[in-house]
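G., before I forget:
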Amino acid sequence: MMRSLIVSCVVLLALSLAVAPALAQEEAKEPTFEEQFTAQLEEWLPGMGAEKIPERGGPQQALQNLVFSLGGPGHEEELKIVCAVVATKLGPETAQPARIWLLRVLEFNGGPECVEAVAKCLDDRDAQVREAARRCLANNPAPEANQKLLDTLGKARDGRAKAALANALGYRADAKSVSALAGLLGDRDEAVVAAAANALGKIADDAATRALAGAVKKVPDKLKAPVADAYLRCADKLLSENKRNEAKAIYQQMAGADMPKATRLAAMQGMLKVTGGK
Amino acid sequence: MMKRPKVTRRDMLKTAAATVAAPLVVPGAALGADDATPPSERITMAGIGVGGRGGGNIRSVAGRKDVQVVAVCDVVPEHRDRNKAEIDGRQGNKDCASINDFRDVLARDDIDAVMIGTPDHWHALITIAACKAGKDVFSEKPETLTIGEGRAMVNAVRRYGRVFAGGSQRVLGDYGNWPKLVRGGALGEIREAFVSCGGPSGDCYLPEEPTPPGVDWDLWIGPAPYRPFHSQLIRGGFRPFRDYSGGGMTDWGAHRFGAATFAIGVHKTGPVEIIPPDGKDVKLLTYVYANGLRIYHGGTNNITYIGTQGELTPGKKLPFTGEVDMEGYKGSGGILGDYIHCIRSRERAFRDIEIAHRACTVCHLGNIAYWLKRPLRWDPEKEVFIGDDEANRWLDRPKREPWTLS
């Protein structure tokens, strides 16, 4: 009996010696920043999407404040992690108010890590989610965001959607958008033409200027003012670059009798600037 | 034989531009035989956003003999109908139209000028659209919601040769001879100023209420992110909320930072650093200018100036008899009279758009520093933050479709 007792103790001792290192490792392991934030976001999400608006404030502001604190120089890696995790919660399994809030946070802090997930929301069934995603990509500095907007524009059939996407591209003022925007200058929908012209006026590079030069001669009278306005902005940019002759040519054309009165006045203002008058 | 003065092409262009820019006044109802201003002399005006202050502004010009108010516009029927009734009474006719959508106002060729009193998030879009429609513009302060909007407004006003007058009557009206004292050097060189006003704006968590019949809520929200109706927002209570306004920083701040920077003479530039309070050494949000001037957000009351040779604190009176070369109102009738005078003369108004933009920019810079809770460096000429991409993403905001800045 004594012998079996000793054997049992030896076995127990051997077992405990084998398990001890693993137990010690388990206690020492701490969650990563990503794990911590993921867990925290899971706690916040139900409140962010609460049916009653006042109940959303606490958790929404908590995320906002965290992101603001990480937005400055020196916290780029943590911010990327936060935005990437936030991007994983943009799907329809998250309550709509929470999705919209997450998109608003990403609008001012998101980068390339969230573009793919945000772009999926451009096709969402919920109109407000689609709109929040559009604005989010408009303000995302990553070049991929511009491409996603262009891709969606290429598939859009609805005039309102096309105009909204043109506005987003204009906000970004990326020269890569000129070709697609120029293609909208002949659209049947006046709002689309106006939005495309406005966007080209914000880009105002040589290609945009050429596109507007062609359009201003062809558009119906109703659209002359917005297209001419964009073209005049190109002239202003040329003048700011000291390309006075090219600017002058546009101002002279826009001062023609076939242009709306306000356009003619703006063109005359431009001519005064070219000639050095006030 | 007398030599005819040589008329240059520049002269011809200037004359043509001024002629095209001047108001086309359409005759309205005669006011009275003896004291009537000829219809051809009257400026036709419309008020856009006439709920509170905006209504007060348009009603006060309706009493002038040289102005005819032909329309009031508001998305709240009660606001526009109340103002129409009163304006018709002052003008002795029923000519004032009551309009919901500002685009219908701007489409009218018989309107020379507008007065904007909408919430702040609409000021830029309506101003720019009005410029493109050939109208002169008065806009209530704060004239902008973002720094990017301000620069776009400057560009549009200049491009279309419009008169723009910003609505801060307090810059000159509240301080007696202080602007002359300060600008004239009675305190020596100003080293510090304290400006008191409310704090930054934040996000809106008002509960949802049913939209009253007739209120065009979608148009009230306009370019701001959508949220459901709440009555506080249409009763002037939109100011605390970032989507529509800049809080106290831009409400009284537009007046007081505008006044302080004007008096000191830094109203055409901006700070180079903005330091929010840090709970330790920095007690008050601080604007640092390139010449070493510091303007603090805080203090006991209104504005305090500290110069190398003296101080001005609220309530203090100092005599001043010198002449100081500084801007003031043109015409008579305060800030509104200045606007109306400049519509005729085509001069720049006292609170021209560049000045209004610069004043509001000071407020917006403070807000951004408060939100981000860190010191920010600013280039007042390029109008960008230096070395802070996140801050630069707050220079403007994408607008809710279908609206966009142009």
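Residues 353-372 of chain B form the longest helix (20 residues). Chain B touches chain A through 48 residues (CB under 8 Å).

More on Monday.
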